[in-house]
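Retro notes (design track)

What went well: tokenization of the new backbones is finally stable.
What didn't: we kept losing track of which sequence belonged to which structure.
Fix going forward: every design gets posted as structure first, then sequence, in one message. First example under the new rule, 127 residues:
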């Protein structure tokens, strides 16, 4: 089977963990569906592991800290994407959606920080 330019790009992207851009909504929807299915399949394993190891408030804390760190790093990356979109004059709908994502991401990091604090407060209060 001959390689086309697209298949070489896809192979390189897969090899290096890159994402490629999709030019139509059908491809985007298929990718989003695949991502969701993969995440929900893994979620069953995560739930079983979390149930087994998160036996008290303090045991929950490392997972919350890890999630917050990863989300914060992603949100800061997305702020750069947003700045680039603004500087390049991308369509206002794209900019608005990116703004929504960044704001929501920061809100999520605040909620996670509050959850982390509650685990420490729960332990220090003797409950």
């Amino acid at each position: 089977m001959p390689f086309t330019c697209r298949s070489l790009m896809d192979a390189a992207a897969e090899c290096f963990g890159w994402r490629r851009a999709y030019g139509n909504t059908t491809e985007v929807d298929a990718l989003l569906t695949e991502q969701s299915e993969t995440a929900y399949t893994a979620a069953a394993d995560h739930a079983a592991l979390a149930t087994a190891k998160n036996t008290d408030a303090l045991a929950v804390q490392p997972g919350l800290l890890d999630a917050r760190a990863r989300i914060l790093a992603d949100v800061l990356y997305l702020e750069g994407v947003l700045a680039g979109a603004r500087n390049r004059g991308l369509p206002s709908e794209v900019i608005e959606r990116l703004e929504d994502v960044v704001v929501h991401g920061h809100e999520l990091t605040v909620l996670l920080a509050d959850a982390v604090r509650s685990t420490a407060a729960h332990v220090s209060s003797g409950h």
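Added context from the reviewer: The first helix runs from residue 5 to 16.
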